[in-house]
User: What shape does this take?
Amino acid sequence: MMRILRTLTAASFVLVVWPASVFAEGDAIRGKQLFNRCAACHSIEGQNKSGPALNSVFGRKAGAVEGYHYSAAVSNSTTVWTDETLDAFLSGPSKMLPGTRMTTSVVKPTDREDIITYLKTLPAP
Ligand code: HEC
Assistant: This one.
């Protein structure tokens, strides 16, 4: 009986911990500071600059901001912006979506994680 219990406990431990360890939550405050690298081209208040507004980008389909003229690479893509896709895009935009006009990559994984965590906190305008 104890053995079964122990096995069950171990199994539920793995279930609870595993998803979090794949993409640990970053630091949103640090992410906000790092967003200075993005702010020249991206607003977080709904208006488009040389890049599309990034408020409520998390969970949104790529290329979906109205009134922004995307490259074909982004507007034809079926990508939805999640932890995984944002991480891939920010590590090498044109590697993920060849032909994109977004050229800024974020080399350090922890920087990407913090920026993505910050993006998640931004509400719709
Ligand atoms: C020099 C200008 C510039 C900078 C700096 C920049 N971007 Fe971009 N970004 C763009 C452009 C232009 C696009 C549109 C790309 C296209 O249509 O191919 C874009 C697109 C995006 C998209 C896709 C948005 C959507 O609606 O699908 C995300 C996400 C993004 N950028 C995140 C970032 C982040 C995070 C940073 C900072 C680390 C950043 N960008 C820095 C110009 C920039």
Remarks:
- The chain has one domain: 27-120.
- Confidence is low (pLDDT under 50) at residues 15-21.
- The pocket of heme C is lined by residues 37-38, 40-42, 50-52, 54, 57, 62-65, 70-71, 73-74, 81, 86, 89-90, 100-102, 104, 106, 115 (CB under 6 Å).
